[in-house]
Write a structure and sequence with these properties.
Layout lengths: L1 H30 L10 E2 L2 E2 L5 H16 L3 E6 L2 E6 L9 H13 L3 H10 L5 E2 L3 H4 L3 H12 L8 E3 L7 E3 L5 E4 L1 H12 L4 E5 L2 E4 L5 H4 L4 E9 L5 H12 L5 E2 L4 E3 H5 L10 E6 L2 E6 L3 H14 L3 E4 L26 E3 L6 E7 L3 E8 L6 E13 L4 E5 L15 E5 L4 E12 L2 E13 L4 E5 L31 H8 L7
Parallel strand pairs: 1-5, 3-9, 21-25
Antiparallel strand pairs: 1-2, 3-4, 6-7, 8-10, 11-19, 12-18, 13-17, 14-15, 16-17, 18-19, 20-23, 22-25, 23-24
Length: 500
């Protein structure tokens, strides 16, 4: 029995010794590596076998620093050359974590994990630290060189010159060039592994533009145009009309941008370039600075609605204007009445204004309408409103004492005028087919009473008043104005030379 036990024990011992021997043979490379680099380990060609982390770091840093002085990097691109010297750089502390990583590769994990990592190396225990990783300022130097080469792509563009008869030209797109910084660093690394003096072509890649000329040549079209006549206006009134519209000439309105007529044209003052001409004050034509500007806003307004531009604010005049249909005028006055619009067309809007001796013109360009699509204005005359006749007002404050003094002396300040009702429509056509009719304005121009001023002093003995030449006009009971003659009536009562 004892002999059997001895035999079993002997067998176990032999097996154990065999296993341990085999284990020693298999793991001999990793059994004695604790806190030191394994035999045969090199970093950048420097043998660090048996060294600890700090020792290896010092040795490798000293080696890299000494080799740095021999380095010369020549970079070429087309006819340009840049030379970088290793002496221009310092070895920074990026080397420390790199050495730590190599050290941890062999000293972390259990024996089996260490052995597995060692097997993956296939006996090659040589490691390289790239100069590009430890050269202080190399990235900045590459950026400096790249900035001399980098050429951004240029998109084709619309060039708008409102003062030219053909206001649009289109520039060509340009392909850009950018330095491939990562590839350049990799090329430097590879070259420096075999030689201290290297010459490298700077790698680049193309950057394509996002907008080509072919994409935009048909992207802009005339959307709406309108003109009004100021042929019978005074020179000063013509000046004001032109001056206000000139503020819009060449304007580019971005998508979703809002525009105010009053803000764009500025105050109607002599300092701002405006002259004196008729304006409407309390239903009466009087001289004022900036007269005629409402014709500018009205011309612009009609061009805008024909271009299908969203109108945020528009207001009618007290008195109808003879230069435009009823319900299509746009009165502006600082502080309480403005013309405002917003670009919701889906692309930029371009505004061109110009004039000749008889007319002013506004053209609105932008994204083309659908093929065959167009807009047309239409007015529906709803009727005239009889006027209330004259009202006599005593000159109690002596405001008109240089014209009338005594009772029975009269001065006509204002004629009575009929009022009108009208609706403005915008009709949308595709070809010859009406596809939409939209009411955009419903306006009432109130009838205006006539105003006659009478003196207030009593006529004393010995004073004879001159004959009265002021004819009193009674209230209307009916009116003869209809759709066919309303424009002629407005022109006769509010001639274009008087219009604000």
């Amino acid at each position: 029995m004892k002999s059997k036990i001895f035999i079993v024990v002997s067998i176990i011992f032999v097996v154990a010794v065999g296993v341990l021997g085999y284990g020693f043979f298999v793991f001999k490379d990793v059994l004695f590596v604790k806190d030191k680099f394994m035999d045969g380990t090199t970093i950048n060609g420097i043998d660090v076998s048996g060294l600890n982390e700090q020792q290896a770091t010092n040795v490798v840093q000293t080696h890299l620093d000494s080799k740095r002085n021999d380095i010369k990097i020549t970079l070429n691109y087309q006819d340009k050359t840049w030379t970088l010297s290793g002496k221009d750089f310092e070895i920074d502390n990026h080397i420390v974590p790199y050495v730590e990583n190599v050290f941890d590769y062999f000293n972390s994990g259990n024996l089996f994990q260490k052995k597995t990592k060692l097997d993956k190396l296939n006996g090659n225990k040589s490691f390289e630290i790239a100069y590009t990783e430890v050269f202080t300022g190399l990235d900045a130097k590459i950026d400096e060189i790249a900035n001399q080469i980098d050429t951004p792509a240029v998109d084709a563009q619309v060039v708008f010159d409102a003062n030219k008869k053909a206001p649009f030209t289109f520039t060509d797109e340009k392909v850009g060039v950018m330095v491939d910084r990562e590839a350049l660093k990799n090329n430097i690394d590879s070259a420096l592994k075999t030689d201290a003096e290297v010459e490298i072509m700077v790698p680049t890649y193309e950057v394509l533009p996002t907008v080509e000329k072919a994409d935009i040549e048909n992207s802009v079209a005339l959307r709406g145009t309108f003109s009004t006549s100021y042929a019978s206006s005074s020179d000063d009134r013509k000046h004001n009309v032109r001056h206000a519209l000139e503020a819009f000439n060449g304007m580019v309105v971005e998508q979703d941008a809002e525009v105010s007529f009053n803000e764009t044209t500025g105050s109607r003052t002599a300092e701002n370039g405006y002259k004196k001409a008729n304006i409407i004050l309390n239903g009466v034509y009087v001289e004022g600075t900036g007269g005629g500007v409402c014709q500018s806003s009205t011309t612009l307004y009609n061009a805008l609605i024909l271009a299908d531009v969203e109108i945020l604010e528009v207001n009618k005049h007290t008195l109808p204007s003879s230069y435009v249909w009823l319900a299509f005028d746009a009165m502006v006055s600082e502080g309480y009445s403005d013309l405002k619009f917003k670009n919701t067309t889906g692309d930029k809007l371009y505004i061109k204004t110009y004039s000749d001796t008889d007319n002013v013109y506004v053209e609105i360009y932008g994204k083309p309408f659908a093929e065959g699509e167009r807009l047309e204005r239409r007015v529906e005359f709803l009727g005239a409103i009889p006027h209330p006749g004259d009202r006599i007002i005593p000159d109690t404050n002596g405001e008109y004492s240089n014209k009338v003094t005594y009772k029975g002396e009269y001065l006509r300040l204002k004629y009575p005028r009929e009022g009108y009702r009208a609706k403005g429509y915008m009709d949308r056509y595709i070809g010859d087919t009406l596809v939409e009719s939209k009411l955009i304005r419903d306006e009432t121009y109130q009838a205006q009473e006539g105003i006659i001023i009478e003196g207030t002093a009593e006529v004393t003995e010995g004073i004879t008043l001159p004959p009265n030449t002021v004819q009193f006009i009674p209230p209307q009971s009916t009116t003869q104005v209809n759709e066919s003659n309303v424009e002629r009536k407005i022109e006769s009562e509010n001639p274009s030379s008087y219009n604000p």
